[in-house]
Amino acid sequence: QWISKPVEELWDSLQKGKSQSLLKKHLTEATYKKLKDKKTTLGGTLAQCISSGALHEGSKVGIYACDPAAYSDPDWKELFNLIIQDYHTGNAAGTVKHPQPSFGTDAEIDSLGDLDPTGQFVVSTRVRVARSHAGMPFPPAAKKEDFEKMEKLGCEGLSTLTGELAGTYYPLRGMDKATQNKMIEDHFLFRADDSVLGDAGGYSCWDTGRGIFHNKDKTFLTWLNEEDHFRFISMQKGGNLGQIYKRLVSAIKHMETKMKFAKMDGLGYLTFCPTNLGTTLRASVHVRVPMLSKDPKVLKDICAKYNLQPRGVHGEHSDSKGGIYDISNRQRLGLTEFQAVTAMKNGVLEIIKEEAKLTWMPKPMPELWERISKSDSQSLMKKFLTPEVYAKLKDKKTSLNGTLAHCINSGCLHLGSKVGIYACDPDAYTTFEDVFNPVIKAYHKVDSINHPVPTFGTEAEMKALENIDPENKMVLSTRIRVARSHKKYPFPPACTSEDFENMEADSVAALSTLTGELAGNYYPLRTMDAKTMEQMIQDHFLFRNDDDVLGDAGGYKYWDIGRGIFHNKDKTFLTWVNEEDHLRLISMQKGGDLGTVYRRLVKAINELEKKLTFAKRDGYGYLTFCPSNLGTTLRASVHMAIPHVSKQPNFKEFCEKYSIQPRGIHGEHSESEGGVFDLSNKRRLGLTEYAAVREMLDGVLAIKKWEEEL
Ligand code: ADP
Ligand code: ADP
Ligand code: MG
Q1: Which domains does the chain have, with CATH numbers?
Q2: Ligand 1 in contact with 126 (CB < 6 A)?
C-alpha cells in the first residue's frame, strides 16, 4: 500500500520549488487550506492528488485525481475544473463541455482506411481508450481488496468477448521475467518504471490486481490496473487505421453492456490523470521519419498544426530511436472519438507526404514501362524485358516486398544506361530471373550462369603478379576492390533507415577487429567536416552521392545515414560502408605494384569472412546490388596516362578485345582528365578472382605497349 508524504511537506516543496505546473498555478493557499484535511466521498485526500506534482518539478500538469469523486464533489471540483480547462483549452476560464461519445458510422469508420499502403513509413498503429469502474477509487486511494475486486470484475467482463476479441487473461504476478520483458519490448505490456506515475501512487500494492488480457494475435489487449482501471487497446503492424479502430469500437460497445464505467456530463469518461478525460482516446502510429527527424523543427511544426503529440517509441517520457516516432492526437476532451482519430489520420498523412519528398521511391510501374517501351534505349534491361516478360513480372514481389519498379527505375529514367537494372534485394535475382538471367549472361559474356567457387590463387601465383610499371612512367596508381553484401539485409532501395544503421554497426564491429597493416578507424559521413570530405574525394579515397544513375536506383536512399569510410593509417586499405554496396573492400597505392595491392586485399577478405556472413549464391558468386558486379565482384584498375592510345579511333575496340573497361578518373560515369584513364577488368562473373586480375594485367600491359609504340 502506497502512502503519500504529509500534505504540509508536499505543499512546502511545491512552494519552494521551481515548478511551472498547472497545479502550482491553480492551487492557491486558500484552496489548499480548504482541502488539506478533507476527504472525498470515496476517501481520497489532497496529498494523494498533489504528491507527484510536488515531487517532480518538471511536471506540466502536476495533479492526479485520487478517485472519481474528486471531479464531482463540491469542495474539490473547482480546483480540478480550473486545471482541466487550462490544460484542454489553454484558458482556466474556458468552458469546454465534452460531447456525448460518438464513434462514427460504419461507413465513416471504413473510410479511415490504411494510412500507408506502401508499408514504408508506418511501422504499427494503436488506438487505446481508458475506462474506470464507477464508484471505485483510483490507484492512490485504492486498497489491496479494491484492486482484487476490480481485477475480478474486469476478468468476468472480458471473458464474455467472442470472435476476434476472445482471449485469455495473464496476471502479472507469476508471469516470468523473460515473458514480461519480451512483451514490453514488443510494445504489448506496460511496466512499472515511470517515477512520475509511481509518485502519484499509480503503483500502489503492485502487482496486486495487475495483468493483461489479450486475444491470440495480440491485436486486442486490455491492461488491468496499470495507470487506469482499464486500458482497452487495439493494435497491429502497418497503417490500417480503419480496421484497428473498428475492432476497438466493437470491444468498447460490448464491454459497456457488461459493466458501469465512471462518466460525467461535460467531462466524458473519468480517468486517473485529468489529461485523459473525455474520449480518453489516444490513436498513435509508430512512424518511420528518419529524414524529417534530422531537423526536428519541421516535424514539430506539423504536429503543432494538427495538434499532435510526438513521443519516443517506448511510450511517454521515452526517446525516439532510429528515426521512429510515436505520433498521436493530443486533444481528448471536447471532441468526439471519431474526430480525435481523424485528427491523427490527417496529421500523419501530411507527415508521410513530407518524409516521402526526402526519401527515395520508384515511380509507378505503368509510367516506367511507358517510358522504356517507347524509347530507343539500348540497355540490356530494355532488350530482355519484352512485353511477355513484363506481363509476367510486373505484379510480383520479392520476399522483402521489392518490386520490378524498384529494380528498373534508374534504367527507365536514364535511357543511356548500358545495363539498366539493379537488384533491390538478394531475392530479386530469383523473383525476377526472367529478366536478370539474360542480362547477366549478356553483360558477363557467359552462356550459363555458372560462377566458380572463390579462388584467389596460391602464394606462388600471387607472387607472379608483376609490377605493371617498374619505371614509374605511366601508371599513377593501382586499386582493387571487391563488393560484399550482408546476407541478412536488402540492397539500398529496399532498406529502411534502421537497416542502414544496423549494417553500419555490424560492419564497423567486424572491421575494428583487423590488425597489423589492416588496422584502422571508421569515419561516419555524418560527422565528417566538408573540407576533409572534399580532400578525400579528390584523392580518390572517398565516394560521393552525385551519380544520378545510382541515385535513381535508390542507391542514396536515406543518405547519409549509416554511411562512412574505414581506412588504415596510410589509406592503403579502405572500406566503404553503404555506398553502392553494403561493403566495398579496397586496396590501393601509388604506382603499379599489382601483386602487393592484391595480396593485401586477399588478406582483408579472408579476415572479414571469418566475422561476417555474406550474401552468396551457387553459380552467381557473391551477390551485389548491380548485376554487373556479381561473381567475383572484383574490379582491378590502374590510373594510367595514355594520351596517344586514347585518341586512336580503335581504342574502345582494342579495350573490348581484352575485356578492359576504360573509365574517367573520377569514377564510373566521369570524364578522363589529361589523357589519364581508369582501366579495369570488365568481366567479373564466370572466372576466378585470380583470373580476373590476370585478365586486367594482360590487357593493361598490351595497352601500355601500344602507347609506348606511338
Ligand atoms: P498510453 O499510455 O497512451 O497507452 P504510452 O506512451 O505509455 O501509451 O505507451 C504504451 C506502450 O504502447 C508503449 O510500449 C508504446 O511503445 C506502445 N505503443 C504506443 N503506440 C504504439 C504504436 N502505434 N505501435 C506500437 N506500439 C505502440
Ligand atoms: P568502383 O565503383 O568500382 O569502386 P568507381 O569507378 O566508382 O569505382 O571509382 C571509385 C573511386 O575510386 C573514384 O574516386 C576513382 O577515381 C577511384 N579509383 C578507381 N581506380 C583507381 C586507381 N587505380 N587509382 C586511384 N583511384 C582509383
Ligand atoms: Mg562506383
Answers
A1: 7-89 (1.10.135.10), 106-283 (3.30.590.10), 375-444 (1.10.135.10), 459-709 (3.30.590.10)
A2: yes
